[in-house]
Amino acid sequence: TQLLEQSPQFLSIQEGENLTVYCNSSSVFSSLQWYRQEPGEGPVLLVTVVTGGEVKKLKRLTFQFGDARKDSSLHITAAQPGDTGLYLCAGANTGNQFYFGTGTSLTVIP
Amino acid sequence: DAGITQSPRHKVTETGTPVTLRCHQTENHRYMYWYRQDPGHGLRLIHYSYGVKDTDKGEVSDGYSVSRSKTEDFLLTLESATSSQTSVYFCAIRPGGGVYGYTFGSGTRLTVV
Hints:
The complex is a heterodimer of chains A (110) and B (113).
Chain A: E1 5-7, E2 10-14, E3 19-24, E4 31-37, E5 44-49, E6 55-58, E7 61-65, E8 71-76, E9 85-92, E10 98-100, E11 104-109
Parallel strand pairs in A: 2-11
Antiparallel strand pairs in A: 1-3, 3-8, 4-5, 4-9, 6-7, 7-8, 9-10, 9-11
Chain B: E1 4-7, E2 10-13, E3 19-25, E4 31-38, E5 42-51, E6 54-57, E7 64-70, E8 73-78, E9 87-94, E10 103-104, E11 108-112
């Protein structure tokens, strides 16, 4: 069962541009995580958000958890080629099992 | 990080043969997971373990079995490989449940011909 929809599926932008990717569901999550995956490697955890409305910043990356805890967004300011990768969101149900979205593949062109 | 390693990294096998993938961790984490990653499906949970000899099924467990005889090792076995099991397999570990994040291995690319 695919509970999490991510958009856009693919995104190609120029270095220096800003972007936002979205993670949406009809289910309520107890917490939500964002990962970045580079080709040939496993996903790496970027952040965990727990409280509805919570905003977390990691350098140029800003993560927000929706007020109703059904959705989340990731905003990148002044994208760099090093930001290239597959961004995955993962939401936890009440049983603390995480379900992963299908990902947004980001390419930042120098 | 060398805290979690998967072997082999690549494998080609024939339909109908058994295949075992190994996950080894040096973090002494309680929870270990096997996921498969396919285009359009994201990461899907196959099996997980919450302790030695304690395992449970995930959403795509048919055709797979697991074993965990030691804290550090979690084995995934494809009993009789099929072409639909061609995928990239990831092992992951977590120190506990709740909000703990996953640490993933580098993956095993399995091709069933």
